[in-house]
Specification:
There is one protein chain. By secondary structure, the protein is α+β, with helices and mostly antiparallel strands. The protein contains 4 helices and 2 strands; from the N terminus they run H-H-E-E-H-H. A hairpin with a 4-residue loop joins strand 1 and strand 2. The longest helix has 24 residues. The relative contact order is 0.09.
Amino acid sequence: MTKTKIDAIETASNAIQTSHGSALLHTLARALATMMDGEANALCGAEYGQRSDERSNLRNGYRDRVLETRLGTVDLKIPKLREGSYLPSFLEPRRRWEQAFVSVVSEAYVRGVSTRKGRAGESHGSAGHVEKRGFASVRDARRGRGSIS
């Protein structure tokens, strides 16, 4: 009985995603735009285009950002503020250097390449210490520049 329910739920989910995917994507884009407007209004102290004594900031156009979701790609127009910055609560800041660093160190670990510097008088054995060029070869291989020997 539960297997039948699971199959029915999966079938319904697949049907919604395939046949009504564009409608869901459009609904998601509108919901995110509404959320960003509300957050920007709260930061400015007034709604867009409204004059108010409580206003503490002004909007200054939009910046484009692409958001990848399971439903597809959503093109966001994130409001810019005249003073300060605004990042929607549902996005996390892009930290490319941090993601690249974790990726390279993970790959080095998987391949068995040591990233430690050797200390004077300490022996690492045959599989221990690898020079900087060993670590750089992992990084370059990830970038498509060469291969690890």
